[in-house]
Structure formats: C-alpha cells, structure tokens
Amino acid sequence: MEHTGSTYVGDYFHERMEGEGTYTLPTETRYEGEMKDGMFHGQGTLHFPNGSKYEGTWDCGIPKEGTYTFTDGLEYKEKKWLYCDGYDRRFNTEICNGLKPAGRSQLTDLDPPREIPKGCYDCGDGFYDPVTRVVNDYTNQFLRNADDDEHEWIIRTCRKEWDEITGYKPKHPL
User: Fold this and answer.
1) How far apart are the C-alpha atoms of 34 and 39, rounded to whole Å?
2) Phi, psi at residue 118, to the nearest 5°?
3) Which of 11, 25, 55, 158 has the CA that lies 20 to 30 A from 1?
4) What phi and psi values does residue 153 have, to the nearest 5 degrees?
5) How many CB atoms lie within 10 A of CB 58?
C-alpha cells in the first residue's frame, strides 16, 4: 500500500486484509465492508469523493450485484429507469423538491449561487479554468484535465464568473 498511496484500517488474517475494514484509495474513494485475501469480498460500499456511492456484493474484488446512488439521492436502476427519459427531462432534485421560478433562481441549487473564481466556470463538480484547462473541486483540489470535448461543452453550457446572458456577477470578485 505504500507504493499505491492507499490505506487500510481493519481486520487482518495471516498478514492479509480479511474481515471488516476500510480501504481508502489515493483518489479519496473509500471502500467500507468485508475483505477476503486482500480483496473486496462480501457486502461493501464504495464511497466516492463527490458524495455518490455504490453498495453491493463483491466476489474476489469484482462487484456482482449492487446499487449506485448519485449525490442527490437518486438510485440508478438498470431496468425501469424512469429518470430523465424522453417524456420527463427534469433533474432528480427538481422531481423531489419542485422547480424554482424561471430566471436567475434557476442558475443553481444554492441560494445565493456559489461564487466562481475570476475567469472560471462552474461545471457542476468544481471550477474549470479555461486557460490551464484544469477542473478543481470546490475545495480547490485537482480533479482532472479537460479534453477538447469537455472544454467546448463547459465553455458552451456552464455558468461563468461573469455571466453575459443573465448579467449575474458575484458581489465580491475573487
């Protein structure tokens, strides 16, 4: 684990991770559950840094059956998936909490909207700097480098520090 940057807190058997434990990857993704022979095995949950999770049954490190839950509480179901279909394009938070009135209040789920660093965009899971082409999470931790497709999508669709369309400008420029 020294070489991978991962950590483990839990039961051992014959110097191998076995029993109940918590295995944390360098990406801050965390597995909590049963281990056998150093692998995820039995019931366990993967918690992702963005707040989503996968709860399931594992067999020798491979997920066999489970449920993925998005950060807003929506559970993914492979069959009878009714979310965001051709007839109802609302987001899960809109289905659960209703729609806000049209206009500026629709910019974000936060009231008031999150302040965006100068020259950056809010791309949903963090801030995007089009000059460096880097996405950092909302605590300024590196998430990823944007490829050409993501760069174009963010520039075209995401809210910018100064929004020319709505006239939104943060009260305290960063």
Assistant:
1) 9
2) -55, 130
3) 55
4) -65, -45
5) 23
30: number of CA atoms within 13 Å, CB side? 13
Q: How many residues does this entry show for the chain?
A: 174
Q: Please tell me which of 49-53, 80-84, 142-146 the model is most confident about, judged by mean pLDDT.
A: 142-146
Please list the residues that pair with 40 across neighbouring strands: 35
Cis peptide before 112 (omega within 30 of 0): yes
Query: Over the stretch 84-107, which tens digit does the pLDDT of each residue have?
Result: 555 565 555 566 666 555 444 444
What pLDDT was estimated at residue 81? Answer: 56
Average pLDDT of the chain, as a whole number? 79
- How far from 135 is each of 25, 50, 154, CA to CA, in Å? 20, 13, 10
What whole-number distance in Å separates Cα of residue 120 and Cα of residue 101? 26
pLDDT digits (tens, 9 = 90+) for 22-40: 999 888 889 999 999 999 9
Res 66: pLDDT: 86
* Residue pair 18/36 in contact by the 8 Å Cβ criterion: yes
